[in-house]
Design brief:
The complex is a heterotrimer. Chain B is mainly α. Chain B has helices at about 1-20, 25-45, 50-75, 85-105, 120-135, 140-145, 150-170. Chain C has one domain (about 5-115): Helix Hairpins, CATH 1.10.287.3510. The chains are: A mainly alpha, B mainly alpha, C mainly alpha.
Chain lengths: ~160, ~180, ~120
């Protein structure tokens, strides 16, 4: 996509706004429409847009596969961890009333943290799905002992056909 | 006025669905599917489901469409090949549709405030959100607090799907350089 | 503001049957996944129509609004949408692997290439 100058310039101004909007939707899910799922998908879409315009190799330098794998697990652990924290503090599993000074404050804290867990998991799973589909090369499955050389991925290849 | 908007959007949706059935080009079907998801998001807004509209627009018109386009690019599929005469499936689906419409005659009208679906648990959730949870968005309160287990299951399903796709599609690591196939 | 009776439900059933028809009739695997998604989305419209309350507003508590639409179907459908995209992603990954093994995404060609029986 090197010759699409308009796309590159517009994407450079848009993608930070998209990521910021994802954070806004995440943390204002209590007060308006929004929440973890929507924020996660919007964040994932921002990263996917970056990968579509600037290439998968560049995106993998920004967000390497190891970070993606770890963050998806951390999201689920955060969610379940809040449940266990409620158990430790004397309530039932996922009972947020015991997390704060008053039950209402505890509910606020609990909801914000688990929505964060949901958002993190969904965002990085969407990016991981895109990495899997876009980085798929038939020859990797045919000859797994081949060397790791930096060729173009499948989407760039079909773009030039 | 709202009923008119709803009527028009649903009619557009049926036109799109019939278009997806008739199209042979797979790229065209994927694009129509993206438009279909966006129209569904509009219908959800008209029906007062703003959170659901948000999610459907982002997920359906965004992620699903790009995954289908990636699959089309990887497999190189272009046109659908029509093989058989579709008379019997058409009759079967028409019969099922007629049975469903006959069953729907007993349902309460759309928008009825005294429908059983709106009477039992929903007012408790709205009141409980006002007094116990004290956040304005009732859907987030129900999703995160009253039905927190279901959301935990859902996050696990998403995680499992990510892991499953990784297992299916990731490249295998190259083994020791000495073991090459066929040499 | 009154709704036109059961019109929503009938359109939903028409869409459901269209999706089911695409799943049954098409031999192309990717078209089947698209049909499945049409089916899923029409079921979402069914549930949200059940939860709509005439004269109500979106279920976000605010000053001056007394009647709210039923929030419970919204929660269920939120979960269902995300689970739907998970199954779509897995189905498409399976299609990619089927293509790499059998060389085609058309059912008839796959049955011809299948070495079993």
């Amino acid at each position: 996509m090197e010759h699409h100058i308009v796309l590159r310039v517009v994407a450079k101004s848009f993608i930070p706004v998209i990521l910021l909007f994802a954070l806004y939707v995440q943390f204002h899910g209590d007060y308006g429409p929004g929440g973890g799922f929507q924020a996660g998908v919007i964040f994932g879409s921002g990263i996917i847009l970056y990968a579509l315009i600037f290439g998968l190799q560049t995106t993998k330098k920004v967000l390497p596969q190891s970070i993606i794998h770890h963050m998806t697990g951390i999201g689920v652990l955060l969610y379940a961890g809040i449940g266990v924290l409620s158990l430790i503090r004397g309530g039932n599993f996922l009972d947020y009333s015991v997390l704060g000074a008053t039950p209402a404050a505890g509910q606020h804290i609990g909801i914000m943290l688990i929505e964060l867990g949901v958002g993190v998991t969904v965002a990085f799973v969407m990016v991981s799905l895109f990495y899997s589909f876009a980085g798929y090369r038939q020859k990797d499955l045919d000859d797994p002992a081949a060397e790791d050389d930096d060729e173009q991925d499948s989407i760039e290849k079909s773009d030039q056909q | 006025m709202e009923a008119l908007v709803d009527l028009a959007l649903l009619a557009l949706l049926t036109v799109l669905a019939i278009g997806i059935v008739r199209l042979r080009s797979l790229f065209g079907a994927a694009m129509l599917f993206g438009i279909y998801s966006l129209l569904c998001a509009l219908i959800f807004v008209v029906l007062d489901a703003v959170d659901v509209a948000f999610t459907e627009a982002a997920v359906g018109a965004g992620i699903s469409t790009i995954l289908i386009l990636s699959t089309l690019s990887i497999t190189g599929a272009r046109l659908e090949v029509k093989h058989s005469r579709p008379l019997i499936p058409f009759l079967i689906t028409a019969a099922i549709g007629a049975a469903l419409i006959y069953a729907s005659l007993d349902m309460p009208l759309v928008g009825d405030p005294n429908a059983p679906a709106n009477l039992h648990v929903a007012p408790e959730y709205i009141e409980g959100t006002r007094t116990e949870v004290q956040i304005p968005n009732v859907v987030t309160a129900v999703l995160a607090s009253y039905r927190g287990y279901d959301t935990l299951g859902e996050v696990t399903v998403i995680f499992t799907a990510g892991v499953g796709v990784l297992c299916l599609l990731s490249r295998r690591r190259p083994r020791r350089k000495t073991t090459r196939r066929g040499s | 503001m009154t709704y036109i009776g059961l019109y929503n439900y009938w359109i939903v059933f028409l869409l459901m049957m269209t999706g089911l028809y695409v799943v049954i009739v098409s031999t192309n695997l990717i078209k089947k996944i698209i049909g499945l998604n049409i089916f899923q989305t029409s079921v979402f419209i069914l549930y949200i129509s059940i939860g709509k309350v005439a004269g109500g507003t979106a279920p976000i508590l605010a000053e001056g609004y007394k009647i709210y639409s039923n929030p419970l179907p919204h929660v269920l459908i939120l979960t269902a949408i995300v689970v739907g995209v998970a199954t779509t992603a897995l189905g498409l990954a399976l299609i990619v692997r089927i293509h790499s093994e059998y060389g085609s995404v058309d059912e008839e060609k796959i049955y011809q290439n299948d070495p079993v029986d």
